[in-house]
Design goal:
Elements (H helix, E strand, L loop, with lengths): L12 H6 L17 E7 L18 H8 L2 E7 L5 H10 L3 H4 L6 E2 L1 H4 L10 E4 L8 H7 L3 E6 L16 E4 L9 H13 L6 E7 L12 H4 L26 H28 L6 E6 L5 E2 L5 E2 L6 H4 E7 L6 E8 L3 H10 L12 H4 L9 E5 L3 E5 L4 E4 L6 E3 L16 H22 L6 E3 L2 H9 L7
Parallel strand pairs: 1-7, 1-8, 2-12, 5-6, 5-7
Antiparallel strand pairs: 2-11, 3-4, 4-17, 8-11, 9-10, 13-14, 14-15, 15-16
């Protein structure tokens, strides 16, 4: 990618090399063939909840087996700790402050003031701006059939997430969310049906999202640790409460059981792809939109902080022609935008903030040094393999030495002023870039249907910002 043309002098050279909306015009070398592409995002899956990322519990035997035959990125960061903004970044390759698709709900008055004609209770939410080129649009233009199979009500077509998909389905079977087996059966049909060209299939699964409802025998496999960790009732949203319990460890046990449940479904799905002779020719990527916190930093759930529990996610990539590896590197969910476009088209992606990982996987260049995330308009973070700065700018913020303190327990900003200064410069450049580029993007809103509102309430989403 070409470099940012003008940024403040405080922006360090490392940042300039890491982030830009422009392209050099140099077309990357295509891989040997255009594979089918399967992208699986698992809602709320934190990286350290999987065995392949070091978790002590047996939550993920099938994903761990998959990881052994894939490229595992150790330090991948979602661009926001909640679905709406994070998925918009994945699909556009842009930071949240640029794509502007992150507000969960707004009262009807905001539209009434602009001359709308709304009656009764009503809310709005951000929608993906139509002028942005999505991942699905780029692949569709290159001859892919593009299919989206999603289960999160914030990702419905009404809010623009269907942009570029030939077929887009929100699964709604009357439950809080549709479980993985039903969604994956639909995905399998696509890979096994006769066709004349490649397919891109995006599957978004909600099985481990609160209210944490694993099936058996998985629920019985995971018991809460002892002693109980009791928190106040106000810390647990009503929609999430399990039998009135205030024991954090019960919620973590149910979450772990949910992972084992969806892991079993994915294992069966992967086996079916192998039986259908569709496995070897398909690029399979497994990641997440954000993580989930269990009071490690006095928060439950997500959309409340930028600690790794909420923004560090798994990133596993099985790509034909690329050898399995465990890569200790910083990466971003939005890096999948230029990476999968390169994989599917053999060409550079449209302008984005993400970094194409294909040259890194082929050992043609070094990985970027930094990854970014934000609570839009509230706080930002820049993270390397060793250090992480969280700041509400212009305040200094907190600095964590994550390579020696992965739990982000000790703020060392006072003792490591040199690191603070350097990372603040990088962070200031990131914010400058996303604000500048956001001036070219029109904000878009869409109404939330009453039935969708009820589903969002059941998931504990309503009124989150």
């Amino acid at each position: 990618m070409s470099r940012i043309s003008r940024v403040p002098l405080l922006v360090v050279l490392a940042f300039v090399a890491a982030l830009s909306l422009a392209s050099t015009g140099r077309t990357p070398e295509p891989l040997s063939s255009r594979p089918d592409i399967l992208l699986i995002t698992i809602d709320s899956l934190r990286a350290d909840a999987l065995g392949s990322y070091g978790y002590r519990r047996q939550t993920s035997p099938n994903l761990d087996e998959f990881a052994r035959g894939a490229v595992l990125i150790t330090d991948a960061i979602a661009q926001a700790p909640f679905t709406k903004a994070s998925v918009a970044s994945l699909m556009t390759g842009l930071l949240p402050g640029t794509h502007k698709t992150y507000t969960s709900s707004k009262p009807a008055g905001s539209i009434m003031k602009r001359g709308g004609h709304v009656k009764g209770p009503f809310e709005l939410t951000d929608a993906l701006p139509a002028e942005l080129t999505t991942l699905a649009e780029a692949l569709k233009a290159s001859g892919y059939r593009t299919v989206g199979l999603i289960t999160n009500p914030y990702l419905i077509a009404d809010f623009g997430y269907d942009q570029g998909f030939s077929h887009y389905r929100f699964f709604n079977n009357g439950e809080v969310y549709t479980r993985a087996p039903e969604v994956l059966r639909e995905a399998l049909k696509i890979f096994t049906a006769p066709r004349s060209g490649p397919v891109f299939v995006w599957v978004h699964l909600m099985d481990i999202h609160n209210p944490y409802r694993p099936g058996e025998p998985y629920r019985a496999m995971f018991r809460p640790d002892s002693p109980p960790q009791i928190i106040s009732e106000e810390e647990i949203a009503p929609a999430v409460r399990i039998e009135g319990s205030r024991d954090v460890r019960l919620y973590r046990a149910r979450y772990d059981a949910c992972i084992r449940d969806v892991d079993a479904s994915l294992g069966a799905f992967f086996a079916a792809l192998r039986r259908a002779n569709a496995w070897d020719s398909t690029a399979v990527v497994v990641s997440a939109d954000h993580g989930e916190e269990f009071y490690e930093h006095a928060h439950m759930g997500h959309n409340t902080s930028l600690f790794d529990a909420q923004v560090r996610v798994p990133l596993l990539m099985k790509i034909p022609g690329i050898r399995p590896a465990r890569l200790r590197m910083a990466a971003q969910v939005m890096d999948l935008y230029p990476t999968l476009i390169h994989l599917g088209t053999g060409r550079a992606a449209p302008a984005s903030h993400g970094n194409d990982l294909i040259p890194v996987l082929l050992s043609e260049r070094q990985a970027e040094r930094y990854a970014f995330a934000e609570l839009p308009g509230k706080a930002w973070t820049v993270r390397s393999l060793d250090w992480k700065l969280v700041s509400s700018m212009p305040r200094t913020g907190q600095l964590y030495h994550v390579s020696v303190d992965p739990g982000e327990i000790r703020d060392v900003a006072f003792d490591e002023q040199r690191q603070v200064v350097q990372l603040r410069q990088v962070l200031a450049g990131m914010i400058s870039t996303e604000v500048r580029d956001g001036q070219k993007v029109a904000h878009r809103e869409a109404p939330i249907d009453s039935r969708v509102l009820e589903r969002l309430r059941a998931l504990g989403y309503l009124n989150r910002q």
